[in-house]
Design brief:
Blueprint lengths: L18 H4 L8 E4 L9 H10 L4 E4 L11 H5 L3 E6 L6 H8 L4 E4 L2 H13 L3 E4 L6 H4 L3 E4 L5 E4 L5 E4 L2 E7 L3 E12 L4 E2 L8 H7 E12 L18 E3 L23
Parallel strand pairs: 1-2, 1-10, 2-3, 3-4, 10-12, 12-13
Antiparallel strand pairs: 5-9, 6-7, 8-9, 10-11
Helix pairs in contact: 5-7
């Protein structure tokens, strides 16, 4: 156990010595929620430590699954992920191969719904109704979750409860509560209060909320009180372990779309 997990909150310093120590008790088959969007704001140090630990059979909820050699793609390529709940699965050829060959179970979820499922899990809300997916296979069921080796559908999504409000169909979606949440923040203090930089905020606060034990890697570690209360994006009540400062230079760009400036000199 680390930080305040041992005595109900009396020990407020949640900093642990390394990423390896922080993920040491994540077991085979654990459900983990992982922050990030594309390659922006992903907890790469924690992912690398989890890969080094050799944990497999993971069930993961995250917006996407990284790329072939970075982010969650590192765990995927090593066959460590058994099930993925995501809203976007492009940019990763190995992901497509594993899904279509029946090696990986995949639950595709509308992006806003996925975020709300995480938020609801952190708020103690077991389920909620949303209009997203109404009138489609999201509500009616039948979406392939896992293929058989012969290409047939081995597991399909179930039909979900629907209700009509003001003439519009709404779909019942269940909250996500993960065993562990893995997030990355720009700044964090020893009490677990976190600040995210611009678009790196994305799914990180939501993944932090829905994890029973949330581990944050921070680029800058400060003392309690240095973050003004109104600047906190995720309060320390949602975070149990902190590692940092982590290497800022390990960030990658998912896809470059720049071109030479018109009229630029050689």
């Amino acid at each position: 156990m680390c930080g305040n997990e041992t005595d109900g909150g009396a020990l407020m310093d949640k900093v642990v010595s390394s990423a390896a120590e922080a993920v040491a008790d994540i077991p085979t088959g654990a459900m983990i929620a992982v922050g990030g969007f594309g390659l922006c704001g992903i907890p790469q140090e924690l992912i690398a430590a989890l890969h080094a630990a050799g944990v497999d059979g993971l069930r993961v909820a995250s917006n996407n699954c990284g790329v072939d050699d970075w982010g969650l793609g590192v765990l995927l390529s090593a066959r460590r992920i058994a099930r993925m709940t995501a809203s976007y699965v492009g940019e990763n050829k190995e992901f497509a191969r594993q899904f279509l060959s029946g090696e990986l179970e995949v639950e595709l979820c509308p992006q806003g719904t996925l975020g709300e499922r995480m938020r609801a899990g952190g708020c103690g809300i077991p389920a909620f109704f949303t209009p997203a997916g109404g009138g489609t296979q999201v509500a009616e069921g039948g979406l392939p979750w896992r293929y058989a080796p012969d290409g047939s559908v081995a597991i399909a999504s179930p039909r979900k409860e629907t209700r009509v409000y003001d003439g519009r169909e709404y779909v019942l979606e269940e909250a996500i509560v993960a065993d562990f949440g893995l997030v990355r923040a720009a700044v964090g203090d020893r009490h677990g209060n976190l600040v995210f930089h611009e678009s790196a905020r994305n799914f990180n606060p939501l993944a932090a909320m829905c994890g029973r034990i949330t581990i944050a890697e921070v680029e800058e570690l400060v003392e309690p009180g240095e973050i003004r209360p109104e600047q906190v994006h995720t309060p320390g009540i949602f975070v149990q372990r902190v590692i940092g400062p982590v290497d800022v230079g390990s960030k990658r760009i998912e896809r470059r779309t720049v071109r030479p400036r018109s009229g630029a000199r050689d």
